[in-house]
Amino acid sequence: MRALEIVATGPMVTVQDAGRFGHAALGVGRSGAADAASYALANRMLANPAGAAALEVTLGGLRVRARGPLTVTVTGADTPLRVDGRGAAMHTVLCLSDGAELVMGTPARGLRTYLGVRGGVDVPPVLGSRSTDVLAGLGPDLPAPGTVLPVGPPPPGFPNVDLVPVPAVGGPETTLRVVPGPRREWFTDGALTTLLSSAYEVTSRSDRVGARLSGPVLDRARDGELPSEGMVPGSLQVPPTGEPVLFLADHPVTGGYPVIAVVRSADLPLAAQARPGTAIRFTL
Amino acid sequence: MRVLTCADSGVLVEVADLTEVIALGAALDARPLPGVADVVPAARTVLLRLVPGADPGAVAAAVREVPLALVGGPAEGETVVVPVVYDGEDLADVARLTGLTPRGVVAAHTAATWTVAFCGFAPGFGYMVCDDDRLHVPRRAEARTRVPAGSVALAGEFTGVYPRSSPGGWQLLGRTEERIWDLERDPPGLLRPGVRVRFEEAS
Questions:
Q1: Do A182 and B4 touch (CB under 8 A)?
Q2: Domains in chain A with CATH codes
Q3: Rounded to 5 degrees, what are φ and ψ at A244?
Q4: Which of A18, A76, A238, B18 pairs as cysteine with A38 (C-beta 3.0–4.6 A)?
């Protein structure tokens, strides 16, 4: 059996795919790779089907050993790579021989790196997906040293590029495009202006559920409680403290605080690569 | 009906009350709209989560045409009986808040036929409503950091059963051994929208 053996993890590693669809009415969210663009690129480079599962690595530090020959690629936040001690490059198709060890360093910018494997990580799906939803506690357990992740049979197609040049993700400042949200009338006019003219810092209290931001307070125009309602990723939900939370892949299915604005879906990968300390600006 | 958008990811439909939420949810179940990947009913809203690339304007226009009146209230779902040991830590507080005796609270909770209006908070957590408004109580002033799995609780107009242990601010009436969420079962959730529920006192 071909497999990836986890030798060490950094701060966090999860198995992720394109997400869990169609179960929202049961209170089950979509989850899936936080930076869907980098994840999808890994599968395209390996000629995998679009939903093949990969490893999402937060702030690097992953070491894996190949059991059987494997073809892999690494996308997302740029991290130094070594295969059996020799340097290797991001965004290239890498062939690992049986027993070879791939080691990731720590990314200098960006937050999430993806290790794709030809054939996909073949753990049993839960409700149609191999994604771990850290909020709901659904999906595969978090890989830990000693975990052996089976790899699926290789797809019929073959990789047709060795290397994909892509701009580096992450950086000290990120600009995200937003659309005023469904509950904009819960806020003062000044609040939207504040949101669009200030820098908000990603705090360390951020995870796959959401990026908790610190910055100028967004004032409400009305008191009272909003009955809980469905949420989408990219929602900028404003709890009573007035500092927004930017919902990411594992956001709660419903939420009880008003949403002042929503990040456009095309910019969600950028949001997912904003590490703590990044300054985020919002623009229409 | 008021139709709001969540950038290019969702269309949020605000309706008059829970009856309309349930009716719209049922109508969209029966005849799914193109471009909609997921339907999220809640207390006063139904969120339509869009498939990537779908046009929110087209979905908003289509949902305005869904006839709520023709559906006519909650769908006829199956009835589930949930046995409960009524020894919850907040039973006395609920009695005080409702003006009933603790036995009166149990009698009202077991006499009502509850309907799951929607799910949220956690996988399999069903928000259930009934016609008896005597059981409307506020959440606890302070949430508990851990509520055991199977806890049967009240908050606002709803009753609910915690599918797994989690933090929670609802008023605890008792507990059930019934498996509310079981991934080995299809569907895994016992308390799905439209399902009717009766609580039965277990000894």
A1: yes
A2: 3-150 (no CATH), 173-283 (2.40.100.10)
A3: -75, 155
A4: A76
